[in-house]
Amino acid sequence: MGVRLGLLAAVAAVAAATCAGATGSALQTQARSVPRFSHVILIVFENHEVNEVLGRSDAPTFNRLASKYATISQYTAVAHPSLPNYLALVSGSTQGIDSDCTSCLVSGRSLADTLAASRKTWKTYAEGLPSTGFTGASSGRYAKKHNPFVYFRRNLVPARLQRIVPLTRFTADLRGRRLPSFSLVVPDLCHDMHDCDPAVGDRFLRTLVPPLLRALGPHGLLVVTFDEGSSDNGCCRLAAGGHILTILAGGLARRGARLSTPVDHYSTLQTIEDLTRVPRQGGAACACTPSLGRLLVGSARRASG
Q: Which of 8, 69, 132, 218: CA 20 to 30 A from 293?
């Protein structure tokens, strides 16, 4: 199994890089019809197939959001285990990693680089993080493998490590209207459902959603997804990380919208990049990656979607 996962990760990384090189420049210069945005927030839960959450009575918050806002019926995680999916979500590549390593580092670029180059801001709010900029493997119910920005060498400088903060800062930033352009919210190993039941994760989400949606207002977007499922179900090119639930909520999400096109984590990154108006990277820059644009208010449909 290890050899197979390693081979898939390596091939996926090469394929994403090749595709980006062939099509990225054209897509980056293409005029994008995207709505005006205020903030984008991505919350990532863990290790559940869509049918283990959607339709279940012990996950009412997930189900209410899915019913009210935009959902995707064929969304597939990129790989197994966790870390490659998180790297894909913020850089458009698994970076050749096929494990949950904690001492590994990657030299590639991430969303942190493109946002900084465009004078946009970002933060990771990680539950259980013992201190700002902590790069250790774990602490209590905090796990580094779910905090992707600390794996990029370019982010291991004081100015950027100051953007890796405990989740306790999130409420203060919400109330103080200090949210960055892009926020990654990382629940701990229980609240993300890695070690606990969906009901626990649902209660966690329920505490966040009302104030979060109010703070986002009419021009904000909340993306709720999972890193991977419990199966090897796949769809798009080499994505084979399980069939997972993904919801787009907030003012920029079309209420009741449904997308049946098979998509994966690269489509989510592409959406974040387009809204924040930064260049697409890796798999998100590939013409083979379907757009989520039709799920957004005021966004023109792309041919690839």
A: 8
